[in-house]
Amino acid sequence: MHVSPQPAQPGISKTRRLLGRAPRTRSVVAATGLLVICVAPFASARTGGPLREGVRNGTTTSETQVISNIGSAPGPTGGYSTRQSNLSNSGGGAVYGCRSQVGGSAAKPRPQNPCLRANNLNTGYAFEFNASDGPIAGLISAGAGGDSKKPFVTNATGIATGLNADRVDGLDAAAIIAAARAKAGMDADTVDGANASDLKVRWALVDESGDIIEQSGGFTLTSKPGINGQPATNPNIYISAGSSLVDKGLNATIAIQNRLDRDGIAGTDPGFGGDVAVARCNTAAVACAPTDTNNDNTLVVRSLVNNADAASQTRRFYVEVTE
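Above: the chain's sequence. Below: its structure in token form.
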């Protein structure tokens, strides 16, 4: 059976025939593109925009959190949630800026978060600062500085190991000493405003008979037993210092001897101990009886084997005046 070929439809080109399904294909492509355009904004809003390098990223209105669970590592890298490093010789690893007001994160009624906070929830360090080289590890500056600014505050009162404080209450060591010396009567390092190197000590050595046998100068004997009407039963020795003893330091000590015969029996009578006491005359506690002794220039000394026994043997002594 012979079948004749169908005649070509008039008005339809070869190209049209080759693209007989093109209208449907174009519809599918257009629908797919529309779906991508519609879905993409929802995906961006849900996950946030990508971090763009080299430009300023958009301003966010909620926290961007990076949470990790990474153990510490002994090597130079590893063990941190994020790492920022700058290979430039001019530095600049990270900078954090904010506009926090006074009070810090404990401010009431609204916290004022600091620009940078490190909070360790365990017992270790909250921060470490390390400068591998160079004479200064870092700088803490507060505005223009000065005494009205504080570098930091702390509630810890323990000793900061290695911290060298050169000032206390705004004063260095020299200023502290000067301020202390200005407070009359409160300075253990000074006497009448003079420090130890400025103090002058005068002294006299008095023998067993009550006579001054050596001295630095200015002392004279005013009274002793049998002199100046002083009875022999009064063993005290009265010495004039030649100037007022008010606010001066007085000291007396036993002067030992091992060459003298005190009792008239052959052989020495060494004197290695005894009692000695000294005071200034004419005070609220001491009144001196012999003539011309009850005044601010005179001191009295009793130096016996036993000061409670006026008849006991006398002892030689040194007396000193610090002025």
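The radius of gyration is 50 Å.
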